[in-house]
Every structure is written in structure tokens, then in C-alpha cells.
Amino acid sequence: MTTSKPEDPIENQKRVVRFELAPSTMIILASALAVSWLLFKLLPVLLVLIAAFFIVGTLNPGVQWLEKKGVSRGLSIGIVFGSLVIITLVTAILTIPALLVQASSIMQQEPVLRGQLADRLAVHPISEPLSKWLRNFKYGGAVSTEGAAAFAYSMEALKCLAYAMSAISLALYIMIDRDRLRGGLFAIVPRSHHIRLSRVMMNLETIVGAYIRGQVITSASIGIFILILMIACGVENAMALALFGAVADVLPYIGIFLPLATGVLSAVPHGPVITFVVLALMLFYMEFEGRVLVPRVYGQALRLPSTVVLFSLLAGGTLMGITGALLALPFAAAIMMLIEELRVQLPGVQEQMADEVLREKDDRGEQEYERRTEGVSAEKSAAIAVEISGDREKEENKTFKKGAL
Questions:
Q1: Sorting pLDDT into bands at 50, 70 and 90, what band is 399?
Q2: pLDDT exceeds 50 at position 142
């Protein structure tokens, strides 16, 4: 006779794992989702605001230089903005009409050039199918479709122009109302963080200025290169092509391809040898700019390693396209600056003696600020914080130069 073992009720009991969120955690998650959704919806507005800050950071050094020469701030802003408008108009007048004439000439000569290219390709058996395809190629598409596409592009161009004008207008208001806006920002931030806030604002302005200087260097380099190349090859409208290449170089990734295409198409009427020379040298410069010039120029200007520069451009372009690539470098430099200024202790880094010295300087700066701003308005307190931070930055620059020597 066999007896069965009694079942253990504990073993048969089902285990239930419950995840319970505290009310505060649920509120934080809901707030984060709401803020993310709001930022996504307001992305064009944020881009306009960022563009305005870039314009302010670019023009502010010129305004400050004129102020040091005794010119009033309002007149300095007018001179700098007026100079910007004049430079933009002169560049457009020198570039756009000549490029339109060049493009019209290429379009008129396109059938002849295509036939010449097809004749050269027909000589070799390997390229003969491509020759037949070129001869039989016909531009398709209904007129209504082309008209709709042209209208859509026109609307996008007008939208971009409206955003650009909004950014310029906002930048102008920010520069005019600098003291009041800065005072309002300092009024909502605890006084114990005013010195650090002023240093962060100064460093952000330095980053924007360094980024713009780097962009000017790269744009001027490709403009000079295209000018010399086109003059040496005898291509017409060399100045217009050079200015177009310098302006187009602002766009990441595709910026180099636009002057490459216009340069090669402009060289086609001068024969295959000139066309090949222009294509080969432009490709060589493309490699030089992407692998040597951009990492070094932006790395030194923004104090970023070359690997960080290349990775930031790739990541920004992948996430947000051209806009992300444009903002990638200053964004990466701003993150590294915030880590340094906020004294964030990274997990794999041990605190050094220099960090303790910096913390002592921070404490002395805060104490001096508290003493000088007792009973003072927010606008004047902001000006005092900027003055203290500027004096400290000058002292650190002197120390850095002495150490370098």
C-alpha cells in the first residue's frame, strides 16, 4: 500500500509581483511626457530662439568693441546690424544673378553636353549601355505635378524666410533689452547661483563666438580655394562660384556637394580635361576639409577633441538632419562646459587639488557678490555678477598664458 505525499500549500501558491508607483513618481513622469510633447510641438519656435541667440553671440563682440570706443549701445547695435544687412545684400547681389545666368547657360547647353558625353561613352563597350540611356533620356512628369512641386518649394522657402526674419528681429530685441532680460533671469534664480549663472552665460557666448569664427574660417577657405581653382582653369564667374561655395559650406554634409556640382557643371563647356581637374581637386578638398580642417578648427575653437567633433556631427545629423548637424558642435561644447562649471563629479574621475582651488574661488566669488549686491536691484546685481565673472576669467586667462609660456 502506497501513501501519497501531502501537497505543500506554499509550493502551489502563485507568486505575484506588483509594481506600484508612488504618486510623486507618476506626477514626475506625466510632467516629463507633457514637457517633451510641448517641446516637440514648439520645435520651430525653439529653433528660432536658438538662432536668435546665435546671432546675438555673433554680433555682441562687435557691439562691445564699439562701446569700449565710446559709442552708445543703441548706436553700436544699429551700426553692427546695418553692417550685417549690407554684407548680406552685397553677397546676394554678387552671387545670385551670376549663378542664375550660369545655370540658364548650362540648361540651354544641356542637350549638346549630354550628346557629347554620350558619344564619348559609346566608344567603350562597358559604358555603351550608359551612352544609350543618356541619348534616350527624357524629362518626365506632368506640368501640374511640376507646378505643385514648385508651389510647395516656394511655400517652404517663404516659411524659412519668415523664420529667419523672426530670429533676426528677436535677436535685435534681445540685444536692446539685454539688461532687463538679464535682470529678469537673475530674479528667478537663487542668489547663491548668480555667479555661476553669469559664468555659464559668458561661456555660452564664448562658445557661440568660437563656433562662428570656425565657420568663417572654413567658409573662407573653401571660397578662396574655389576662386583660385576656377581662375586657374579659366571658368567664367569664378567670384560668384566662390561666394556661393563659401555660403553653402555653412550647411553640414551637403554644403560641400553644392559647390562641387556647380563647379563641375560650369567646367563642362571647357572640355573633359578641365572638368576632370575641377572634379578631382574638389573631391580632394572635400576630404581635406572633412578629415583635417573641420576637426582641427572646431576642436581648437571649441576645445573639443577631433573624435568628439566627428561623432557630434554624425549624431546630430542622424537625429535632426541638417539642423542637428548645425547645432551638434556648440551643443557638445556647451555640455562639456556645464560639466566643468557646475563641478559635476564624473564616476570615473577623482577630485584633484585644482578642483578644490576652484571651489574655494567659487566660494570667495559668492561672498564678494553677496557683499556688493546687498539691497541692490536684480538688473544691477546681474551687472555686478557679470563684472566679477569677467575679472575672474581675465585672471584665469593670464594664468593660462603664463603656464603655456
A1: low
A2: no
Banded model confidence at residue 96, pLDDT cuts 50, 70, 90: confident
Do the domain assignments include residue 166? yes
The residue to which cell 562639456 is assigned: 336
- Across the chain, mean pLDDT equals 77
**Structural domains in the chain (count):** 1
Domain span at residue 66 reads: 44-137+145-176
Residue 139 reports pLDDT greater than 70: no
d(CA 65, CA 203): 18
User: Based on the number of CB atoms within 10 Å of its own CB, is 168 exposed (0-12), middle (13-18) or buried (19 or more)?
Assistant: middle
Please give the model's pTM, rounded to 2 decimal places.
0.68
Q: What percentage of the chain reaches a pLDDT higher than 70? A: 80
- pLDDT computed for residue 229 by the predictor: 92
Report, in angstroms and rounded to the nearest whole number, the Rg of the chain calculated over CA atoms.
30
User: φ and ψ at 344, to 5 degrees?
Assistant: -70, 125
* 131 within a domain of the structure (yes/no): yes
Neighbours of 353 (CB within 10 A): 7
Cα 54 to chain centroid, rounded: 9
Closest residue by Cα to residue 250 from 166, 164, 308, 319: 164
Residue with cell 586667462: 397
Do the beta carbons of residue 128 and residue 121 sit within 8 Å? yes
Q: Is the pLDDT assigned to residue 349 strictly greater than 60?
A: no
C-alpha cell at 40: 516637440
Sign of CA dihedral 310, 312, 314, 316: negative
The whole-angstrom separation of Cα 223 and Cα 215 is: 12
Contacts of 376 (CB under 8 A, 6+ apart): 384
How many whole angstroms separate alpha carbon 240 and alpha carbon 96? 8
pLDDT at 281: 92
**CA distance linking residue 126 with residue 129, whole number of Å:** 7
Q: Tell me, yes or no, whether 21 lies in a domain.
A: no
Q: What is the pLDDT of residue 228?
A: 92
Which grid coordinates belong to 325?
Answer: 548637424
Residue 129 lies in a domain: yes
User: Which three three-digit cell numbers place residue 229?
Assistant: 581653382
* Spatial separation of the C-alpha atoms in residues 402 and 405, rounded to whole Å: 5
